[in-house]
Specification:
The protein has 441 residues and is mainly α. It contains 18 helices and no strands.
């Protein structure tokens, strides 16, 4: 578990650390806030396209092998980012990180599922979420300290030693998928649905272009018009394939559909916050990167502490109850932020973000367990890829939303409007959480 989590932390760690460094990157390359936000949106968009492909690769070639390749690739891409002389090359390095991170994301949850028996799966995902969320929690603080002491380039160098630890820890252990097979779970290599994956990548690319908020009017409009056409073609194709890349029938299951909707809305909130808060603290309130790191610490730190509790409770009381309680906390915290964010001190901001983070942590592991329990072990990569596609599309939407609200300048009105919209998104997450399964007989 420690080895798998060591690789999995690379993805959230590099997302939350970068939030603190955005103002420094803006200064280094002389770019506007909406351009700097593309470092987040391009990364998340590339991951959203890559995760379904990664899930199929894991189901076909083995999840441990996929995990090791992804971790090694992420470490190398981070070295490219640390030495990038141009903003465009930094964006390219983020895309390479995304492709490698997608391999890690889907394979890591498949390995966790294989490690745990069914009656302790919620607890296993709670432990996994705690370890991963701890990295996300420490990301802003560590990133703030690194940027303050050195510069933003040094921040990317942290990935290399973590990647080495993950490769050694997982590579020297027996394959958990073999242990799952010994418990009687059917695990057989699945063929890769290349036409389905290609059409899905085209669909996701069109969605991402449509989310760019009018930066290139004709192209964005054409992409938006193409989305429903490609979607219909993709669904028709996948319903005719014996082993599809993404099975549309999964969404006929209320628990799976609710889990995907819940993770999408949760990541809209998280990644919009990771853009809004650093600019609020450092531009409007003239704080330091270290202050931003401390303020953002709560949203992930409390999530890390609440994740094991939420997972254990869901093993006994069902996946729905802890998810509902956690989402109510998110709604409450964001509603107060909507009213006071632009005038609140750093301490108040940190406390309110901690409430939001605790709610997310309580709801996260039950939701993930519910999503991966809908399929057998031989299709867990496909289900994980679908789930993570929703997660990263939500991240792209959240970062794009924050960039669109702020535009070319950071204003108090724009930040306040951003948190108002996120409050409504949290209400949608509450509705989705009601569809998770309740207590089993």
């Amino acid at each position: 578990m420690v080895g798998v989590a060591s690789g999995a932390i690379l993805v959230p760690l590099n997302s939350t650390m970068l939030a603190v460094a955005l103002p420094s990157v803006m200064t280094a390359f002389a770019v506007a806030p909406d351009a700097a936000a593309t470092l987040v949106t391009v990364y998340l968009g590339a991951v959203a396209i890559a995760v379904p492909i990664s899930g199929s690769i894991g189901d076909r070639f083995g999840h441990r092998r996929t995990f090791l390749v992804g971790v090694a690739g992420f470490g190398l891409a981070s070295l490219v980012a640390a030495t990038a002389p141009l903003f465009s090359l930094l964006v390219l390095a983020r895309v390479l990180q995304a492709a490698s991170g997608a391999l890690v994301s889907t394979s890591s949850v498949a390995l966790v599922r294989a490690l745990a028996p069914a009656d302790r799966r919620g607890a296993a995902f709670g432990l996994f979420d705690m370890l991963v969320s701890t990295s996300a929690a420490l990301g802003p603080l560590v990133g703030g300290l690194i940027v303050g002491a050195f510069d933003w380039r040094a921040m990317f160098l942290l990935a290399a030693p973590i990647a080495v630890v993950a490769v050694l820890a997982v590579g020297l252990r027996p394959d958990p998928m073999s242990e799952a097979a010994d418990r009687g779970e059917r695990i057989a290599p699945r063929p890769i649905d290349a036409p389905g994956l290609a059409l899905l990548a085209l669909l996701l690319g069109a969605i991402l272009l449509a989310l760019r908020a009018g930066r290139d009017g004709p192209i964005d409009a054409l992409a938006a018009a193409a989305v429903p056409i490609i979607l219909v073609g993709f669904v028709r194709l996948e319903l005719r394939v014996a082993q599809p890349a993404v099975d549309p029938r999964l969404f006929a299951s209320m628990p799976f559909a609710a889990a995907v909707a819940g993770v999408l809305t949760a990541t809209v909130i998280l990644h919009a916050t990771l853009v809004l808060v650093p600019l609020l603290v450092e531009v409007l309130q003239h704080g330091s990167p270290e202050t931003t790191g401390i303020v953002l610490l709560g949203i992930s730190a409390l999530g890390a502490l609440a994740a094991p509790f939420g997972g254990r409770v869901s093993d006994r009381a069902g996946r729905r109850l802890p998810a509902l309680v956690g989402t109510v906390a998110c709604v409450a915290g964001l509603a107060v932020l909507w009213q006071v964010s632009t005038t609140a001190s750093a301490v108040v901001l940190g406390v309110l973000l901690a409430i939001v983070g605790a709610g997310m942590g309580l709801a996260g592991s039950p939701r993930q367990a519910a999503a991966l329990e809908t399929v057998g072990a031989d299709r867990v990569g496909m289900a994980a890829g679908t789930y993570y596609t929703g997660r990263y599309l939500g991240g792209v939407l959240g970062a794009s939303l924050a960039g669109a609200v702020l535009g070319g300048a950071v204003t108090a009105a724009g930040v306040g409007l951003g948190f108002g919209i996120l409050t409504l998104v949290a209400v949608g997450m509450l509705v989705a959480s009601a569809g998770l399964p309740g207590r089993r007989s």
